[in-house]
Amino acid sequence: KRPAGAPDKDLARKVTKVGIIGAGLMASQFAILFVRRLQVPVVITDLDQARVDKGLGYIRDEIGTLEQKGRIDADEANRLRALVTGTTDKADFADCDWVIEAVFEDLAVKQQVFAEVEPFLSETAVIATNTSSLSVEQIGAKLAHPERVVGFHFFNPVAVMPLLEIVKAPATDDETLATAFAVAAKLKKSAVLTADAPGFVVNRLLAKVMGEAARAVDEGTPVPVVEKALAPIGLPMGPFELIDLVGWAVAAHVQDTMVREFPERFYSSENLHALAKLGGPVVEKDKHGKVTDLS
Ligand code: CAA
Q1: Domains 9-195 and 202-277 in one fold
Q2: 237 CA to middle of ligand 1, Å?
Q3: For the complex shown, is ipTM > 0.85?
Q4: Pocket flag, ligand 1, residue 241 (CB < 6 Å)
Q5: Does ligand 1 come within 6 angstroms of the Cβ of 242?
Q6: What is the number of the ligand 1 atom nearest to the C-alpha of 66?
Q7: Domain at 9-195: CATH code
Q8: Mutation test residue for ligand 1: of 30, 72, 136, 160, the one with most atoms within 8 Å of CB
Q9: CA nearest ligand 1 atom 13, residue
Q10: 197 CA → ligand 1 middle, Å
Q11: Is 153 a catalytic residue?
Q12: Grouped pLDDT means (10 residues each) for the chain, 295 residues
């Protein structure tokens, strides 16, 4: 069944090579998902070779974990590893028909990385942004072909969370949108089309929860109490554990965007921002990075 708002799937373009801008944790998780589900070459890039190598190391290790868990066999693991390459040369993106960024959550940075790569791409290559709250229209505004820019917003952990927000900017054309839905289906994600509005849908709601949780702590309620208070309404993790999962800097940026766009509706916690500047609080975690003690 065609998802609500998705154009005719016959308009979708074929994706034979994927380019990923960024080689951090999120970008590396994209690389694993794309190579596994699309079975096409995936190239990652970052500011320097050291960052690229770190990303490639993580990707190779995680493919090893998939093999250990029995999700893929040794031949598949080797094939997937061989399909993922790294580069610092944007010319290696020339034959990519799908490019996605997972760089710092800042409008100017996202505009710049796309402006740098666009001259190397074919006119029909899709340019997808994983922005969590910025305007997709503005991210594409300085490009020669903004009609092939689309929001493609994943959730942490990328491999596990089933949802994907596809964001249509006013300029996004039907071919781009159809390709985005086709790629989402191949990635086995459940895609929903959202308006190009601040925070889209999920982060607009999450920013409210996170902001009110931070406000409760600022008012004097201890963190563990706030964490436990939300369990009975069915959230799989408390708001601060969730902030830790998505990253304190990302959470602070989403909060900033929402406060900037809707100052009367969202709460900005100075404590949350101070912690984000420090890279988050020092908390005990198990070997999977799960917080064991937030007190
Ligand atoms: N990173 C990668 N994989 C992880 C992980 C992590 N941090 N945590 C768990 N997993 C994997 C495990 O390895 C396991 O995979 P396998 O099945 O392959 O073995 C799988 O997830 C299930 O793990 P658990 O049995 O430990 O599951 P759990 O019941 O503790 O659930 C959870 C873990 C899925 C993370 C769950 O707590 C959850 O859904 N939390 C809420 C997450 C959420 O709301 N994410 C959205 C954040 S907002 C965002 O990302 C958008 C943004 O722009 C900021």
Answers
A1: no
A2: 9
A3: yes
A4: no
A5: yes
A6: 18
A7: 3.40.50.720
A8: 160
A9: 288
A10: 26
A11: yes
A12: 84 97 95 98 97 97 97 97 97 96 94 96 95 96 96 96 97 97 97 95 94 94 89 85 90 92 93 86 69 67
Per-residue confidence (pLDDT) for residue 69, from 0 to 100: 96
Delimit the domains of the chain by residue range.
9-195, 202-277
Q: For domain 202-277, give the fold.
A: N-(1-d-carboxylethyl)-l-norvaline Dehydrogenase; domain 2 (1.10.1040)
What HEC string does the chain produce?
Answer: CCCCCCCCHHHCCCCCCEEEECCCHHHHHHHHHHHHHHCCCEEEECCCHHHHHHHHHHHHHHHHHHHHCCCCCHHHHHHHHHHEEEECCHHHHCCCCEEEECCCCCHHHHHHHHHHHHHHCCCCCEEEECCCCCCHHHHHCCCCCHHHEEEEECCCCCCCCCEEEEEECCCCCHHHHHHHHHHHHHCCCEEEEEECCCCCCHHHHHHHHHHHHHHHHHCCCCHHHHHHHCHHHCCCCCHHHHHHHHCHHHHHHHHHHHHHHCCCCCCCCHHHHHHHHCCCCCCEECCCCCEEECC
**pTM to 2 decimals?**
0.93
Does 245 contact ligand 1 (Cβ within 6 A)?
yes
Atom number in ligand 1 closest to CA 153: 53
